[in-house]
Design goal:
about 525 residues, alpha/beta, Rossmann fold, 3 domains, 23 helices, elongated
Length: about 525
Amino acid sequence: MTIFARLRTLGKAMLEESVDIEEKKIGKELYDYQQEAIDEIFKRLSNHTENYNLLFQLPTGGGKTVIFSEIAKRYISETGKKVLILTHRIELCAQTSNMLNEFGVENKIIDSKVKTLPDQEDYKCFVAMVETLNNRLQDEKLEVEKVGLVIIDEAHYNSFKKLFKFLEKSVILGVTATPLSSNIKLPLKETYDELIVGHSIAALIEKGFLSKATTHSYDVNLGSLKVGIDGDYTVSSSDRLYTNYLMQEKLVGAYEEQCKGKKTLIFNNGINTSVHVHSLFTNAGYEIRHLDNTNSEQERRDILSWFKNKPDAILTSVGILTTGFDEPTVESIIINRATKSLTLYHQMIGRGSRILPNKSTFEVIDLGNNAARFGLWDSYVNWHDIFRSPDFYLESLWNDRDIERNFTYRMPAELRAKFSKSENIDFNMKEEYALFAKQGLRPMAAIDRAIEHHTRICFENSSDYFEAAELVKLLEQDIEGRVKKYSYCICSSTDNYVKWLQDEYKRKLSLSLSKKFSSVSVED
């Protein structure tokens, strides 16, 4: 049964609410940006009939499966040659095969069950995983000389390169959302002759094809994280950081501030962290499921079915849902990890970018300083420069120390509204510290001034001490940010000192407010 046949059984209303960009394209005209991309690709292919590698970039959610399915159909029709499509995961094989079928392209999946290919002459298109195809080519089970075009999905993975020696006479089209190699020692410019850049994330949002992300960044000290041989943070060091009490408290607080009641997907770096997140939310009274690559196929289907059908579902996961997973009803993404991979950063946020008739925006909670490192998800990225000079790009990224020192807390609009009676809610700790140092006064005077400022705005927006005390609770992040800035100024930023100073700050603020309201009562 085709995907539309299945959807029709659920009714027209369900179809309208659950269809994404790629599914909307089936059997209809291509969107203008998709047609432009296809025409540009064929223009390049017409000038290179063999031994040519072309890379195409399009953001997650832009419909790249639709595009290369149409390319496969058109290439077979125009040249009579065969097409081979490569993926790195079995789920992507099935999805790609289904999309090709919808476009009328008969295809055969070459998976681990296919040991021989006696019927290969019956097909013009094949879909295969890298390792499986490599084994069949080694065994000379597939006649690759009849393959004119090879399409590589998620081309930034370097596992595909081992196959190129078998495909020297073919034209290769790599497709990716982020043309930055997963292995910095094997840059894509050494594999592909040129890059075609599709429409940007911002352009697709403006045209109404992707939802707009609202990013909420929380300051996180990443000093304890270690970098592994793959260039990203190790699972073990991430587990230690993200399972500690303060980070778990920050995670729940961020969820309750920005995502409560919304369908939420949480990404973690380690299974241990995800299991802790599951227990944390369960104990807090929230319904949540955990998913990783150790779950059976049936367990995975059951969990994803539950996630799809429950409006306020929370799903905590590890790696497995960054590619090959599309659930348009996701309303919030929580990145409960740090990463040095631009590709992974885009993949995680992209899981929430699908549009629906009643969904044009989604929330992103960043608990790994990722937005500070890479920029906002929809910010302009010069992919041509990254393709040509990946080393320069990677070296230009801020390190964790610089990110933390330059982090500036911005009060969310909904919290700012609670301080509407105050004209100025901002406080520059660095400037205040410099002022007192210049006057030869004690450094702690800057902290005292910050407490005075918080006292004033809480007093101005409360009718009694108890209301003010509730506002103080909402200022947790602001207090944390001010104390950290101060600790950098005095070059003493040990975790124990910062924690002590934060507690002392809140104690003094509470005492200051108590005196303030007491004096008002006496005057009355």
